[in-house]
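Dear colleague,

Thank you for sharing your sequence with our group. We've completed the structure prediction you requested, and as agreed, I am returning the results in plain text so they can be pasted directly into your records. Please verify that the sequence below matches your submission; if there's any discrepancy, let me know and we will rerun it promptly.
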Amino acid sequence: MVIGGARSGKSRFAEGLVSASALPRLYIATAEAWDGEMRARIAAHQVDRGPGWQTVEAPHDLCAALAAVPAGHAVLLDCATLWLTNRMLAEADLEAEAAALEAALLACAAPVVVVTNELGWSIVPENALARRFRDAQGRLNQRLAASAGLVVTVIAGLPLVLKGTLP
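Please find the predicted structure tokens below.
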């Protein structure tokens, strides 16, 4: 699990972890391009990753995407925060979804690096929906970190290992 704030360098660091494995790389994308800005962000991430990545778009059904991953690959799931946003806006049962995601990650046939955002260091949001999302994200991050063998936070492009050992 790689966690950090916005523009912290977490995705780039996670890409490096997956690339260092020398296994075929699979990118599970959770973002949806609802507007021009988001389309530009997605395009920039694709350019940053470079060639050699197979992409699976899974903005909602991460469990099915993870179950379909063949052994012998390395997976980058980017990102749990956008997935949680999608599921919250779909009015899903977030506790059940988080439990299913955790089980799918543990059952995946390949190693998975999950990118997620740390939202707990910001100000308390002014509206109920934003507070509910921040709290749900914090609970999801705790759950993912408890199951992960390696947890790294990235701040200003610099990794700090919270759990486990870097390869």
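Summary note from our side: Helices lie at 10-20, 36-49, 62-67, 80-89, 94-107, 128-147.

Kind regards,
the structure core
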